[in-house]
Design brief:
- The chain is α+β, with helices and mostly antiparallel strands.
- The protein has 8 helices and 12 strands.
- α5 (195-217) packs across α7 (261-281), α6 (228-242) runs parallel beside α7 and α7 packs antiparallel against α8.
- It starts with 18 loop residues before the first helix and ends in a 7-residue tail after the last strand.
C-alpha cells in the first residue's frame, strides 16, 4: 500500500506517463525510499521504509524536514547532501539514526537529484539501506583488534621487563661464578702440593668451564632459541683460546638449525668436557692441536673432537671411567637419546664422537 499526502496525488510527485510504474518500483524496494521537495521536506516514503523506520502512518511525518528524523549531529551532513542534490550531484555516506520508536540503526544513505522533463532538479531522492548488522560486525572486529593490540602491547612490555630481569640475573650469575672460581683457586694455592689442592684446582677449572658455557649461551638473551652452529663454534673457540690450544673447525651444520637454550647448554657442557680432557691429556708438553667436526644426520647432531695426543690407553672404556668429566658426557648423551663413541684420530690421538637427538625450538 502506497503512503502519501492525501492532498497531493502521489503520481504528481513524478512527471511523465511512466510515473505509476516508477512509483511501484520505489514502493517495492527493500530500502527506505523517500522523496523530498527542494526544501528537504518529506513528501513520500515507501512502505518498506515506513516499516524500517517504525513509522506507523506517513501522515505523522508528512511535510516534516527530513533532518528532523535524525540526531542533531547528522544535520550538517544531511544539509550538505541535499544542497549537492539541488546542484545535480549524488552523495553517499554512512550514518547512525534510530527509528521513530528508538531502535538503534545504521544506514547507508544515497541522496540523488530527481529531474523534471526539462532537466531541472525538482525533487530529491533519499535512499537509506539498513546496514546495522554490518556496522556492528565491523565494530566487533575493530574492538577485537584493539583488544589484541592491547594484549600484544602488554606482552611486549612483559618481554621487555623479562629481558631486563634476565640481564640482571645473568650479571649476578657471572659475578657468582667469578667469586666461586677465585675462592677455589685461592684455596688450591693454600693446599698446593697436596691432594686437596689438586681437587680444588680441578673444581675451579670445571666451574670456569661452566661460566664460559653460560656466557656464550646468553650472548643474545632476547631470543627463545639458539643457533647451534654459532653457539658451538663460538664456545669451542673461546675454550681453546683460554686453554692455549689450537683448534680447527669443520662446521657442516645448516645455519637454520636452532634449538632450545636448555639443550644448547647440555651440548655445550659435553663439548666443554671433551675439550678440557683433550687439552689435559694431549700435546706432550707442547700446544695441543684439536679438530672439531659438526654435522647433522636427520634430527641428530654428530659432533666429533680429535686431538694430536698419545691416544687412548688400551681397553679404554668410558663407562668404567671414574672421572667426572667423562661421566657428564655420558649422562648428557643418554638424556638426549644419544651415544658416545671413542677411537683413534688420524694423527694417532684420541677421537670422541657424540651423536644426540636435537629438540625443535619452542614455539614463539
Amino acid at each position: 500500500m502506497l503512503s502519501q499526502d492525501p492532498n497531493l496525488p502521489v503520481l504528481d510527485l513524478l512527471d511523465g506517463a511512466e510515473a505509476g510504474f516508477a512509483l511501484s518500483i520505489l514502493d517495492a524496494s527493500p530500502d527506505c525510499i523517500k522523496l523530498l521537495d527542494l526544501e528537504g521536506r518529506l513528501r513520500f516514503m515507501n512502505g518498506n521504509g515506513l516499516c524500517a523506520m517504525e513509522i506507523d502512518d506517513f501522515r505523522v511525518v508528512d511535510r516534516q524536514a527530513w533532518p528532523s528524523l535524525w540526531p542533531s549531529e547528522a544535520n550538517e551532513r544531511l544539509d550538505a547532501a541535499m544542497a549537492a542534490a539541488r546542484r545535480g550531484e549524488v552523495t553517499r555516506f554512512e550514518a547512525f539514526c534510530p527509528t521513530a520508536k528508538g531502535t538503534p540503526r545504521w544506514w547507508h544513505v544515497t541522496v540523488s537529484p530527481v529531474r523534471a522533463g526539462t532537466g531541472e532538479v525538482h525533487r530529491i531522492l533519499a535512499s537509506s539501506r539498513d546496514i546495522t548488522e554490518t556496522v556492528e560486525a565491523r565494530q566487533r572486529l575493530e574492538d577485537q583488534a584493539e583488544r589484541l593490540a592491547s594484549e600484544v602491547a602488554q606482552k611486549d612490555d612483559a618481554i621487555a621487563r623479562q629481558a631486563v630481569l634476565m640481564g640482571e640475573i645473568d650479571h649476578r650469575v657471572k659475578n657468582s661464578f667469578a667469586a666461586v672460581i677465585a675462592l677455589l683457586r685461592m684455596q688450591a694455592r693454600v693446599h698446593a702440593g697436596q691432594a686437596a689442592g689438586g681437587l680444588l684446582g680441578d673444581a675451579a677449572s670445571r666451574i670456569s668451564t661452566l661460566a664460559r658455557v653460560h656466557e656464550q649461551l646468553h650472548l643474545d638473551p632476547g631470543r627463545r632459541d639458539v643457533s647451534l652452529s654459532d653457539y658451538l663454534t663460538l664456545l669451542a673457540t673461546d675454550l681453546t683460546q683460554a686453554l692455549d690450544a689450537r683448534l680447527s673447525i669443520g662446521d657442516a651444520l645448516p645455519s637454520e638449525v636452532r634449538i632450545p637454550p636448555s639443550q644448547a647448554a647440555a651440548i655445550g657442557q659435553v663439548l666443554a668436557e671433551l675439550i678440557g680432557n683433550a687439552v689435559k691429556h694431549a700435546g706432550g708438553g707442547g700446544q695441543p692441536q684439536l679438530a672439531l667436526s659438526l654435522s647433522q644426520r636427520g634430527d641428530r647432531l654428530v659432533m666429533t673432537l680429535t686431538d694430536d695426543g698419545p691416544g687412548l690407553p688400551d681397553g679404554f672404556d668410558p663407562q668404567a671411567r671414574s672421572g667426572l668429566g667423562m661421566q657428564i658426557c655420558l649422562i648428557y648423551a643418554q638424556q638426549m637419546d644419544g651415544h658416545l663413541h671413542h677411537g683413534a684420530s688420524e694423527t694417532g690421538g684420541a677421537a670422541f664422537t657424540v651423536e644426540m637427538r636435537l629438540d625443535p625450538p619452542a614455539a614463539s
